[in-house]
Write a structure and sequence with these properties.
The chain is mainly β. The protein is built from one helix and 19 strands. It has one domain. It is globular.
């Protein structure tokens, strides 16, 4: 049975490799986080319950890693905007690992963010690992902070053998970042109720933000949201692969990277009524 203590990040017994180090750096940034957290309490980060933004206790026990895996794109449709055509799609990231996926960021007012991944431990607390992630303000209707490029979606042409055409240039989605949190309980494991919400993604003036995804839960960005599209106006008819990569820059610590990509194949063609893009094949699904 998985259980979570939102402040201490306490999880059920599990054995995994433990990585330690950076004690001096952690102490220095722990002081910053404490100051930022105190300021953040008054700057829209969730009141007394900071959720994923709460600084963890020191790690005790063994590390328990998350494992991110994307679902094949679905709800794919074509959309005409003026003289341009785009495909729209839903992106879903699932945590198939044993531990929660937690990213936290702190800053002094007006300064740059410092982002860290909190790797939870079996007894209590978490190891804080600096990651080079960039935070961007989601001022497109989301109105909270995002971690840049947790997932990237690309569209590439396929040859007659169904393989990615050699030398082909990929078209990339326009979504700049994710504020991830427990959206839907995808798998039959992990907590039965949501642990992490969008509240800790902060406001524009926040000095501490946090994002979390529990084991067995997914984070879903529906196809109608900003950035969930690729312009295909200039593409010729043919078969294309729409694939999703999780953490392509390899910044995050996970149990495995072998499941960080999935895909669907589309048959892009012009018809009498417009542009069609039916799905003709589907890649691996998180399990």
């Amino acid at each position: 049975m998985w259980r979570a203590d939102r402040r201490r990040r306490r999880i059920a017994p599990y054995t995994a490799p433990v990585r330690r180090g950076r004690k001096t750096t952690l102490r220095r940034w722990a002081a910053l986080a404490a100051i930022a957290a105190a300021i953040g309490l008054a700057s829209g980060c969730g009141g007394d319950d900071l959720g994923a933004a709460a600084e963890p206790d020191p790690p005790v026990g063994s590390a328990v890693l998350p494992d991110l895996s994307p679902k094949p794109q679905y709800n794919v449709l074509t959309q005409q905007v003026g003289n341009r055509w785009r495909i729209r799609f839903t992106t879903t990231i699932v945590n198939v690992g044993e531990g929660p996926f937690i990213l936290r960021a702190t800053r002094f007012p007006g300064a740059d963010w410092r982002a860290e991944q909190d790797v939870s431990y079996t007894e209590s607390g978490a190891e804080q690992i600096h990651v080079g992630s960039v935070l961007v303000w989601g001022g497109d209707g989301h109105e909270h902070w995002h971690i840049e490029r947790v997932a990237v979606v690309r569209l590439v042409p396929l040859d007659d053998d169904g393989k990615i055409r050699a030398g082909a240039k990929a078209l990339v989605d326009t979504k700049v970042g994710f504020c991830f949190y427990d959206h839907t309980h995808e798998l039959g494991r992990g907590p039965e109720e949501k642990v992490y919400s969008a509240k800790s993604c902060g406001t524009k003036d926040s000095t501490v933000v946090g994002m979390g995804l529990s084991p067995g839960w997914n984070d879903t960005y529906l196809m109608g949201l900003p950035g969930q599209s690729i312009d295909v106006t200039d593409l010729p008819d043919g078969r294309y692969r729409l694939y999703t990569d999780i953490d392509p820059q390899k910044r995050f610590r996970e149990a495995s990277r072998t499941n960080n990509r999935t895909w669907i194949d589309l048959d892009l063609r012009r018809t009498a009524t417009g542009l069609a893009a039916p799905t003709v094949a589907t890649g691996p699904t998180p399990s």
